[in-house]
From TrEMBL:
GO terms for molecular function: oxidoreductase activity. InterPro entries: AKR, AKR_Detox_Biosynth, Aldo/ket_reductase_CS, NAD(P)_OxRdtase_dom_sf, NADP_OxRdtase_dom. PROSITE patterns: ALDOKETO_REDUCTASE_2. The keyword Lyase does not apply. It comes from the Bacteria. Residues 19-313 form the NADP-dependent oxidoreductase domain. This is Aldo/keto reductase. Keywords: Oxidoreductase.
Length: 320
C-alpha cells in the first residue's frame, strides 16, 4: 500500500467489498451510546440495510459490544434476508482475550458463540480484540490459525497491536500457513499516531490492511459540534474530546474539510473518511440510522487531489 490515489485496502479487495465499512459498537450498547433511548432495533436494522444498499457491505462487530447484543441484532437482520444475491453483508467480529480466559482454545469457544449469535457458519474476518499476556499470545495465534483451517473464519486479524506485536503475529501465523489480514487501530485526522509509531509502515510492508476505528473522531469531524455544544451520550458528554477547549482546536480542521468538501459536493465527514482511504486504510465509521449510513457512503466514488490531501496533512500535524 502506498499514499495517494493508488492506495488500496488489500482485505477489501480480497473480500470483494469497498474500502469502507460500518462499525457496529453502538448497536445494542445502551450505557455508552444510548441504545434504546435515542435509537433502537429498528434504526440500526435500517442502518445496516442502508449501508449495504449504498455499497458498504463490510460490518465490524465484537462479542463484547452490548454483551453480544450487536452480534444478535446483525444475526436477526441477516435472518430477515432481502439482500440481493452476492451483495450480502460481509461480517467481521472479535475475540476479547480477557484475564479469565486462561486457555488459548477459549478463542474457538468464543467464536462458536459468535457464530451462533450471528446465525452463520463462518465469519469473513475474526480478530483478536487487543494484545494481552493472557492467554499465551503465541498459543492464541496458533488457535486463530485453526479458526481458518476449520472453516469458521475466512480471514483473521488483530486489533490494537503495536508494529512489533503485529510483526510477531504475522510471522507466527505465516508458520501455520495463514496470513495476517488486518490490524484494527485508532486512526483519523485527529489521531495520526499510526503514522509515527510504525503501525502504518508495518501494514504497508506486510500487506496487512489497517482498519481504522473512530475515523471521524466520534463525530468531531462531522462539523456537527461547535464550542458551547455538549452532545448526548456518555462517551461524548463526559469525554474531554468534546470539551470547550478541544472543540475550538478542532474548528480549523473542520473548516478545511468544508472547503475541500465544497469542491467535490461532499460533507466534512465524507472528506475525512476519503483521506483515510487515500492512505490505504479501511475506515469503519458507526451509523445509528439509515441517514448516517448513507452519509458515510458518500466517502466513496471520488478522490481528493494530492494538493488537497497535503492541506489536510498540514492542518492536522498537531495530532500526529
Amino acid at each position: 500500500m502506498q499514499d495517494g490515489t493508488t492506495a488500496e485496502a488489500t482485505l477489501a479487495r480480497e473480500l470483494g467489498v469497498e474500502p469502507l465499512g460500518v462499525g457496529a459498537w453502538a448497536w445494542g450498547t445502551s450505557q455508552l451510546w444510548g441504545y434504546g433511548k435515542e435509537y433502537g432495533r429498528r434504526e440500526v436494522g435500517e442502518a445496516l440495510r442502508a449501508s449495504v444498499a449504498s455499497g458498504v457491505r463490510f460490518v465490524d462487530t465484537a462479542e463484547i459490544y452490548g454483551n453480544g447484543a450487536s452480534e444478535r441484532i446483525i444475526g436477526e437482520v441477516l435472518a430477515e434476508g432481502g439482500f440481493p444475491e452476492g451483495k450480502e453483508p460481509v461480517i467481521a467480529t472479535k475475540f476479547a482475550p480477557l484475564p479469565y480466559r486462561f486457555s488459548p482454545r477459549s478463542l474457538l469457544s468464543a467464536l462458536d458463540a459468535s457464530l451462533l449469535r450471528l446465525g452463520v457458519s463462518q465469519v469473513d474476518l475474526y480478530q483478536i480484540h487487543f494484545n494481552s499476556p493472557v492467554p499465551s499470545p503465541k498459543g492464541l495465534l496458533d488457535v486463530l490459525a485453526e479458526a481458518v483451517k476449520s472453516g469458521r473464519a475466512r480471514h483473521v486479524g488483530v486489533s490494537n497491536y503495536s508494529a512489533e506485536a503485529m510483526r510477531r503475529a504475522h510471522e507466527r501465523l505465516e508458520r501455520q500457513g495463514v496470513r495476517l489480514a488486518s490490524n484494527q487501530v485508532h486512526y483519523s485526522l485527529l489521531h495520526r499516531k499510526p503514522e509515527i509509531d510504525g503501525v502504518l509502515d508495518a501494514c504497508r510492508q506486510l500487506g496487512v490492511t489497517l482498519i481504522a476505528y473512530s475515523p471521524i473522531a466520534q463525530g468531531l469531524l462531522t462539523g456537527k459540534y461547535r464550542p458551547g455544544d455538549r452532545p448526548s451520550g456518555l462517551m461524548r458528554r463526559y469525554g474531554r474530546a468534546f470539551g470547550e477547549a478541544n472543540l475550538r482546536r478542532v474548528e480549523p480542521v473542520v473548516d478545511e474539510l468544508r472547503r475541500i468538501g465544497r469542491e467535490h459536493g461532499r460533507e466534512p465527514s465524507q472528506v475525512a473518511l476519503n483521506w483515510l482511504i487515500s492512505k490505504g486504510a479501511m475506515p469503519i465509521p458507526g451509523a445509528k440510522n439509515a441517514r448516517q449510513a448513507e452519509q458515510n457512503a458518500g466517502a466513496l466514488g471520488w478522490e481528493m487531489s494530492p494538493e488537497e490531501t497535503e492541506r489536510l496533512d498540514l492542518a492536522t500535524l498537531g495530532w500526529r
